[in-house]
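Explain this record to help learners:
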Amino acid sequence: MPQFKNFPLPDVGEGLVEAEILAWHVKPGDEVAVNQIIVEIETAKAAVELPCPYSGVVSELLAEPGQTVDVGVPIVVIDTDPNGEPANGAPPAAEERVPNLVGYGAKSSTAKRRARKGAAPVTVAEAPAAEPAVAPAATGGHVPLAKPPVRKLAKELGIDLAVLAGSGPNGVITRVDVETAAIGAPVSVRGSRERRVPVKGVRKMTAQAMVDSAFSAPHVTEFLTVDVTPMMELRAKLKDSADFRGVRLTPLAFAAKAVCLAVRRTPDVNATWDAGAGEIVYKDYVHLGVAAATPRGLIVPNIRDADAMSLRQLAEELERLTTTARDGKTAPADMTGGTITITNVGVFGVDTGTPIINPGESAILAFGAIRDMPWVVGGQVVPRKVLQLALSFDHRVVDGQQGSQFLADVGALLADPAMAVTY
């Protein structure tokens, strides 16, 4: 007989409590195999593709794109024995697996699907057999019509579908409508010239983390202007060498190497303040965080054991992490356990800033834009490649002398890469 099993939303990170459904890759009636990707979700840390734990036929999708679901709540029903015949002519209620801890102690119970607001309770057996092609989401009395991929694009670009009038058939909002709104071109807007976007996902997590850090760690920020002409000359030379052929060697890779080397002389900037234990935790490794701006907000993936990597390896890892982050495919594990962070504000043409320390760390380095500027060399004013660095550090862990020493070391290594042989 048919065997209906619910797939509850799992905890794909460290203690996550909810996630948003971005897009389904299956529909009712589709056959699925174990470990087949069936849905893409967005947690507070990243977009994640979920594999199916069962093989069978999709019976019902219990959540719509754009809907936020709590961990442990069923999101899809799978018939694991679609060729079986029910004993009484109707399928039984789905078996719900209720996890106590991830991967442990799951228990079974008979459950009904949670009713939507304004609708009568619906059991799994009574649920409709198919989802509509366009998933509605009521907002302020207006139901914006858009397909899941368009909804996903609107969310990534920060566009509120409720204020747009779709140009598609029957008022359906199209990809072009969303892209037009995103670039600031004139669009057809319903009523108000304001829009409201719920704070959730990566933006919600980032906002809370920054508030927690700013009001718990006493920040000190120091600045240093550096002539990096020798670094840029070395970069040009290495790009033409066989060892770096095919590698995108950016100035940020040199900064990453300089940070890892400078940590050796000032390990305090790589330590952690453990308030609960009343201890400072010193770490004999560097998991280097790299702040990356993405369509979904700021995320900080980290390069594991960056201090053990060569310049080429760091360049390759930076390229991989930033590409993955912009594509929204960063794994949650890649955004935990960082020990010190670099934020590259120079990519936006910004000279420097006062960065906020990533929670759980004690220092963050802002890497500014490299500009042609007048500089005094041997008593003569000549044009040089110059950048500004800014280091914010937790004054509970790092004293002013230690922070200054670390920043000076990073600057010295960028000003004269040959200094690396002395570290």
Observations:
- Confidence is low (pLDDT under 50) at residues 87-141.
